[in-house]
Amino acid sequence: MKRKITIRILLAILFALSSLFSFACQKTPEVKNFLMETKEDRDVRMKWWREARFGMFIHWGAYAVPAGTYNGKQVDGIGEWIMDKAKIPIPEYEKFVRQFNPVKFNADEWVQIAADAGMKYIVITSKHHDGFCLWDSKVSDYDIMDAAPFKRDILEELAEACKKKKIKLCFYHSIMDWHHPDAKGENFPTYREQYLKPQIKELIDNYGDLGVLWFDGEWIKEWTEEQGKDLYNYVRSLQNDIIINNRVGKGRQGMQGMNKEVGHAGDFGTPEQKIPDTGIPGVDWESCMTMNDTWGFKSFDSNWKSKETLIRYLIDIASKGGNFLLNVGPTAEGIIPEPSVTRLGAMGKWLEVNGTAIYGTTASPYGKPEWGRFTQKSGNIFAHIFEWPASASITIPDPRLEVTKAYLLADKGKQSLNTEKTESGLRINLPPTAPDPIASVVVIEY
Ligand code: FHN
Domain 372-445, what fold? Predict the structure, then answer.
């Protein structure tokens, strides 16, 4: 009898344990290694991004308040680094947060500026290195709701506006944090597990479907490739089809931005203020760049690149199979500076006519001709002519190319241009003057 009771008790314990185990299994999300993806799955995931080619970077935060000036002195360097460059103590910097009240911020207007420029996605700093958060974070008081007078969730308003315009919303998020007390040294794991990761979860849960998570600040000694891989897997477990830049891990080689070798975490390389000399077949990349010399707003930086330079950069990047992420640094009031808006408008006008030679294209099949660049897409080669040749002709260096028609993209009537086969390739005869002095596109159908 005693033995029977013992067996019953043992069985009951076993049952309880097994139910507990199966409950625990249900609660634990599947741990999957998303780095082991097939090429086909990856191509599906990367499709919209590869087609988009042009996005808006927005660096915005409390650094827009000093706008480059501290204690009456203009500080050297990029605006969003003012805390570090001017060695501003945390309590002093927090005063800028308390003044950050961008009453002129209008998410619809910003998204419209991006859409008018022909941009297909927006990457905004949810948190830059200074640690200040642009959304209502439940794990932080250092955010737009709790620390600043503005009391509007900037990311929520942008998410709404992006949805209306079908622009993909993406977040830049700094791994490095100059404000959080645990973000350096031996407490770093606490910061990572109880702050960084919960914040990423908030961003994905509350503002998704996100296009990209764009990490930065990965160079700190506390961060390792292993942690990068873990974060990559974590982010993808929250949103399977999200795209993540290579700064999630330790792969990138400085500002050149591409990875040292294969096997690092991240989906695309991130050249900064640079365009690679050539594309790299099978490697995705995106050049990010400022229009003047700062990412975050500086009141006295007026070293603007011309619209001609920016349009040609976009073409150059597309001709090498990359994306162009072009930055704006709004003011503390919430205004995108007028010189940026003008330049973006000019890019949008050019893309209205010539967008088909940029969006969804792949790298040049013939390298770089001396008069401009090539892009290509399904049975079409696009010749982007920067310098209109004195001979009023260009040669496509492919003697075997069977061309059905060549015409100027700016010509709505698609009037055929004369072509002739030569030993060095196909010569296309052009009108004597360029339809667009910045870049005229000839479509070559084959
Ligand atoms: O330190 C940042 C910098 O402030 C800016 O955000 C750029 C954008 O790519 N990235 C970092 C430097 O690599």
Answer: Immunoglobulin-like (2.60.40)
